[in-house]
Amino acid sequence: MTQDSKTSSSREHVLVVDDTKRIRDFLIEYVLSPQGFHVTVASDGQEGLEKARAEKPDLIIVDNQMPRLTGLELLQQINKDGLNIPSIMMTAHGSEAIAVEAFRLGVRDYIVKPFNVENMASAIERALREKRLEKERDHLNKQLVDSNLQLQRRVQELNMLYGIGKTVSASLKLDDVIQRVVEGAIHLTGADECSLMLLDDNRTELYVRAAKNLDTKTQSLRIKVTNTFAGETLRVQKPLNFTPNQPKHAKFLQSQGLQALLYIPIVAHTKALGLLSLANRKNPNPFSEREQRILSPMVDFVGITLHNARLFSQMEYERHRLQALISQTNDPILLINEKGRLEMLNTAASIALNLPVSSSINQPITQLIEDESILKFFTQLEDENFVSNNEITVDDGRVFNANMTLVRGVGRSVFMRDISNMKEVDQLKTELVHIVSHDLRSPLTSILGYVELLRRVGDVNEQQEEFIKRIQINVQNITTLITDLLDLGRLESGMTLNLAPCDLTQLLHEISEEQHASVALKEQTFIFDVPPLPVLNADRNRLHQAFSNLISNAIKYSPEKAKVEVKGYAQEGQIIITITDTGIGIAPEDQAHIFDKFYRADRVQGSHQGTGLGLSIVKSVIEKHNGRIWVQSELGKGSRFFVVLPPTTDVAKQK
Ligand code: ADP
User: Fold this and answer.
1) Is pTM beyond 0.85 here?
2) What pLDDT does 437 receive?
3) Ligand 1 atom 23, closest CA
């Protein structure tokens, strides 16, 4: 270690101490110079000692017999001084006692004069080997210490980056993250000042969002992005390290009173949001590539956080809006989470179900709802009998139509609509139906009766007979119209179906029997091809009405001797019924409208009796059962009506 100062010179230094010039010259010329040693000489012991002390050579080759100070004395002094310099002693033949003493003093080798080049060279080699190894070890040690230091620095940097990364992921608070990054940047680079600047909303100026060691004046500074280095950094989205040997940079640094400056842009999703600025005002060091590299991920953190913070505030805004919307909606809305606890309810729901918002949230729904039927609806199992729609009557007497939706990963949402008014209207309608059917139909029946009697009380001429028939037909039409109107009204007012197991095959057979007289009158061929079908959960009366309409239309709109066919089959869990005739058919332009109210094809207006309401009723009934109806028809050839009904389970989930 004492030789550290020598390591700068790669040549090894040998001090030759001998009072005989010939020996000194011999050593230099034949042994030391050829091997590239740096040589200094001393011509007696005293001079040798002084030079050894001053020059601290790598090796001393010393004679013993010398004036002023012998070789042994010189070595003794060196030892005393604590100088650990390897040495080779040259003595005359027969001085073995001196040799022993010399070895005691740490001499590496002992050589007897006269010696040859080879002997001396190998003695030097041996003496220096240890020193050389020592040097190598020192060198390796130094390298190790350097690498360790570097490693420690890297670890520190990584720790800091990790710490900042943790702050970013743990916090959505922009201020926390930004402040940590600014402090971290100063810590990692030793910069004099650091500021984090963000673009304003117009993206025309940068303002300081966080800073360290910045004076208040600079802190309130705003930098325009047009024609500035800062703006350029944002535009190219690459760091800008000001180099004083570039005249433009040097001028700028000087104008700012700075020695060094580094801008690193903050980018998120390819959009520049601002920059990190590091400056050295007193510190003369420029910022290195390495510092720039290490700062980049930190700046990326800021980009991520800024982006997240913006997304978060946007989401918060949307959430508040949605919350306001839900809470101010007049219809009750509530959300039950997957654990069966009430997660959210709006004011309307709180009033309707008599649940105070604050004390009900997060409580099990089973402990909140007392009404058994409501609770049963809310907590029903998600199986094939699941009912999404139900009528709920709450304590204050209001009736709601509650619709429940299962939302995967969230729970079940319930949306309730107040149908108390509709219920009342429905009640009124039922009463009206009763009145109409009784009070309006009775006079009509009596008109028909009296018209019938006309023929009995006396002869009627041909013209009178024609009038009587017309009266009968029209009164019949009015009666049908009244019935259809009432039915349609009932269906459209949201009348619920009376669901019960229904054997569709039997029902269709029954209807066919009822129509037998009409078929016979027109001598038509009636084919019934409906095998036993799966039992449906349906409103039998309504389906009776629908299929009667379809079958009677097929008969009505087909000429004599035509063919009418009722066919049924089950396919992929659905029941399909077709009613086919070889009748007059429906023109393509009429096909789109025949299910509309009061629509009748032009050609049938006069020739066939009807109100144009039948198919509207059929469509309503089928759709109430979650089914579908459509027609295929060719003018002059016939029509086929298709009815598809879903299996029992789906019908149960009526709309
Ligand atoms: P209505 O039979 O009382 O006129 P619908 O609503 O039952 O009323 O039928 C609407 C129209 O559709 C009918 O007027 C007729 O033009 C046409 N239509 C219905 N069924 C058939 C059919 N099987 N063949 C031809 N046309 C039909």
Assistant:
1) no
2) 65
3) 554
